[in-house]
Amino acid sequence: MKKLIILSFLATVIFATGCKKLLDQIPGDAQPGDQVLKTSANVYAVLAASYERFTNNDFLGGNATKTSELYGDQINFVNVTGGAEVQFTQRGFSSFNSIGRSLWFTGYDAIGRANVVIKALSENTYTDLKDSAKNIWNGEALFIRGVSHFELTRLFAKPYSSNPTSDPGVVIRQKALSASEAQIPKQRATVKESYDAAIADLKQAEMLLPSLNSGARATKWAAKAYLARIYFNMGDYANAFTYANDVITNSGYSLGTDVTVPFKTVGNLTTPTTGVVMMILGDAGVQRGSFWNSDLNNTYLPLSSSLYSLITSKGGTRFTSLTAASTSPVRGVSTKWAQLGTQGVNVPLIRLSEMYLIRAESNVQKGGFADAAVRADYNAVRAVAGVDADNSTTGTTALLAAIRAERAVELFTEGDSYHELRRLKLNVRGIAYNDATGLLKIPDGEVRANLGIIQN
Q1: Which CATH architecture has domain 2-289+344-449?
Q2: Residue 143: phi, psi to the nearest 5?
């Protein structure tokens, strides 16, 4: 098993690298020439490149998580004294912020290449591909496009809990463009339209994708898990419950018994990975460089004192296995991203424990729940960390508090808490959950190419 996983991962890297010359000639939003549409091998090369941008350190493999933590209130800014990160401390963002630039353009590059794949498959200008493979590739491209639009919306727009029908979301790009078409300005859709576009793509993807896929590629369960996450962010708890329940009940995935497993190196993967619905195979360099340092006192983004105390008191083995403390002064440090030193580590894109916590809260929020069923969900997450089961909490208010406390100690430094604050309409470091000054600016390159775009 270990050998197969490593070979699959290496094959993906080699294939993408071998096609580099071809792929570098294709602008992210521009339709390629006939040389790409002519053979399935070339179309697959574009799909591999779309995955590379999607999972890149500049997007979902790193900066998306880091940015969400910088936005939020669970880290200590003591060591942030310069660079793009310092703009997060006072929320004085520039359109030239390098983190914002990398997120925006890498995300849209993934989308642009996914659009090329979708167009090529729809036109079917070649005959060397079976329909079964065509459907899977189409599902993968739709998955990448839908998730990318959603995550860009979460990072560059106000939350759905604000005014989704009027707040500007992101630019929706669902077409492979010619060079001239790529120059035509396109404005930001609303937050609702941005979410709707993501949902539509993922609903198509879940119908096309297989239950298991090679390497760390998208599956129908990854699409369903993301739909659960999106509906949960929207406050559509009935749909969030349905999708989370489907993943938990029918995917065959397991939470396992070790809190460190989702963050192990490639060689420790199982298929599917224990506790993970979709994994990014990468170096996690952004997370490791941000949230951990071999000299704990020099960790760039240590945990806030309140979060560290919460993990210490309620985290079980998540404290002993996933956090450490610097000594002078005492600061909590996440070691999720430091396992096995400088070797590459996995980046869980979406974990099974999140599905349990979404199902638990959605069950309460939608009403008609049984206390024991809700407790069973967050107790399942607790059990992996060796925390005693809660068999006594009852009632909406107390159950929601227990679920949210569990979520904080389970998903710390994974970019979750900021989005939770905004879903719940809570202030974020002293400003309102929907204050536009708390958002990165639309990057300068987009502003120049897309005149009149609404700026944050």
Answers
A1: Alpha Horseshoe (1.25)
A2: -60, -50
Gap between the Cα atoms of 298 and 45, Å rounded: 41
Nearest to 100, CA basis, from 171, 167, 156? 156
Rounded Cα–Cα distance for residues 222 and 212 (Å): 10
CA angle 295, 296, 300 (to 5 degrees): 100
Dihedral sign from CA coordinates of 335, 339, 344, 348: negative
> What is the rounded distance in angstroms from the CA atom of residue 38 to the CA atom of residue 43?
8
Rounded to 10 deg, the angle between the 98-123 and 63-71 helix axes is 130
Cβ burial of 33 (10 Å; 0-12, 13-18, 19+) is exposed
Spatial distance between the Cα atoms of 98 and 94, rounded to a whole number of angstroms: 9
Closest CA to 62 of 221, 368, 288: 288
SS3 330: strand
Q: Within 265-351, where are the H helices?
A: 285-291, 305-314, 317-322
DSSP output for 256-279:
-S-TTGGG--GGG--SSPTTEEEE
Residues in Cβ contact with 401 at an 8 Å cutoff, skipping those fewer than 6 apart: none
Contact 419, 68 (CB under 8 A): yes
407-434 pLDDT per residue, tens: 999 999 999 999 999 999 999 999 999 9
HEC readout, 171-236: CCCCCCECCCHHHCCCCCCEHHHHHHHHHHHHHHHHHHCCCCCCCCCCCHHHHHHHHHHHHHHHCC
Distances (CA, A) of 227 to 69, 163, 291, 371, 415: 22, 21, 28, 25, 17
Using CA of residue 175, residue 180, residue 182, residue 186, what is the dihedral sign? negative
What's phi and psi for 65, nearest 5 deg?
-65, -50
Taking the C-alpha atoms of residue 337 and residue 66, their distance in angstroms, rounded to an integer, is 12
- Report the percentage of the chain scoring pLDDT > 70: 88
Instruction: Give me the residue spans of the domains in the chain.
Output: 2-289+344-449
- The predicted-structure confidence for 40-94, as pLDDT tens digits, reads as follows 888 999 999 999 999 999 999 999 999 999 999 999 999 999 899 999 999 999 9
> What dihedral do alpha carbons 161, 164, 170, 171 form, nearest 10°?
160
